[in-house]
Amino acid sequence: MTSPSNPLPPKAVQKIVAIDDEAPILDIISTVLRARDYEVETFTEPLKALQWLTNVNWDVDLVITDVMMPGKDGLALARNLRAKAGPIAILLISARLSDEGLWGEDQQDLAFLAKPFTTLELVEAVDKTIARFPRQSSGQ
User: I need a surface site. Which of 11, 41, 68, 111 has the fewest CB within 10 A?
Assistant: First the structure.
């Protein structure tokens, strides 16, 4: 039992990066997740997201990315992220890709959420994906 002299430590803020070429989707994702106390950075361009992630030394709990985007698709982005950051948590979202069998052998453990999704489905997918891939400490 806690008392005023012995409070619980504050919950660490979990950081999420969301990447989608459709700004309205990013608005929904960020609104829902920020309401649940996640810190959310959004990007409409995958290459800008990669640059930002590099600058913060991959210090995030989850990357949510659309599969079909101009410039770099989500599957290629996921492969690139894992090559640079190791076992980072990635949640793929798409309205077009329902056959997970199309993914590479090295991508079979990626989480997937089909568009359109409800806010509850989004939150459940985020929580499950973060739990499967807890963030590695920056010192490794």
Answer: 11
pLDDT (tens digit, 9 = 90+) per residue, 14-72? 999 999 999 999 999 999 999 999 999 999 999 999 999 999 999 999 999 998 888 78
Asked whether residue 56 is assigned to any structural domain, the reply reads: yes
pLDDT at 31: 98
Strands 62-66 and 39-43: unpaired
Q: Which two tokens stand for residue 116?
A: 């359109």
Domain span at 57: 15-132
What tokens appear for 44 in the block? 């409409």
42-69 CB burial, b ≥16 within 10 A, e <16: bbbebeebbeebeeeebebbbbbbbbeb
